[in-house]
Amino acid sequence: MPKSTKYTAKQPDAHGFIDYTPEEDAVWRDLVAQQQPSVNKLMAQPFLEGQAQLNLSQTKVPQCVDVSKRLGETTGWKVEAVPALIGFTQFFKMLSERTFPAASFIRSREDFDYIEEPDIFHEIYGHTPLLTDPRFADFSQIIGETGLRCEKTDYSWLIRLYWFTVEFGLLRQGQIIKALGSGLASSPGELAHSVNEPTVMRKPFDVIDILRTPYRIDINQPIYFVLDSVEQLLDATKRDLLQDIKDAQKLGLHAPTYPEKKKAG
Predict the structure, then answer these.
(1) Which of 172, 171, 217 is nearest to 190 (CA)?
(2) Upper half-sphere CA count for residue 74 (Cβ side, 13 Å)
(3) Average confidence (pLDDT) over 212-224
(4) How far is CA 262 from CA 3, 116, 216, 218, 258, in A?
(5) How far apart are CA 164 and CA 180, in angstroms?
């Protein structure tokens, strides 16, 4: 997650509703129109089933209170608007309480095809469909609970397990690999890249391997991890993840497979 953003959070009213402008609704509409055909073709079944359950608006930015009502009826989760950027401590605490933090702004036309920080399109369109699935709902809560028991120096290790599953995971459906993660669902470029790009490394799901794999947030991923079934996530929640982090730290990080980010100036 970037350390700063040019965007300002939009504040909900006393009833939790946010007044999005017609221009902002139009950005949502056009993002959905651009992304949905690829999602229908390339996303895994759990995501598509979640989309069907939520039946999100295709023409206006959905309201967190409305999405929360639907999630509450399925898995007991809710969505809460937060400032543009929050820290890991708050993020883990909210997940532990089955509350998904949603940055309330939507990207500008200038950032239409790519935005580094998460916006409401990524949060609602990308994340909430998976939260209708009890397996992802429980996995996300366990990540939050584990984060609250971690040392702050362990946060960057734990978040890799979330990054390479909920955000950028892949799922094997029969003989086909489909995209699963929320970051892929909301990305015009990386969705096809993740399943079709021949130079990409697609590795079997392995907790220790994931914890040792560095990543950059501002590029298409060169490595993805493939679940054979969503139940593998539930198996991961039964592990001693704090011990896994210690074991991964002893082994050390894998060498990055991407170029180092150039420093400004």
Answers:
(1) 217
(2) 24
(3) 96
(4) 16, 15, 12, 12, 12
(5) 10
Whether 185 and 129 have beta carbons less than 8 Å apart is answered as yes
State the average pLDDT over residues 136-162: 97
5 domain residue, yes or no: no
Quick one: 85 exposed, middle or buried, by C-beta within 10 A (0-12, 13-18, 19+)? middle
- In-domain check, residue 263: no
**At 161, which amino acid appears?**
L
CATH number for position 216: 1.10.800.10
State the pTM of this model: 0.93
Tell me how far apart the alpha carbons of residues 86 and 102 are, in angstroms, rounded to a whole number: 10
What is the average pLDDT across 107-122? 90
Residue 42 CB contacts under 8 Å (≥ 6 apart), including other chains? 178, 179, 191, 192, 195
| CA separation for the pair 55, 261 (Å, rounded) | 39
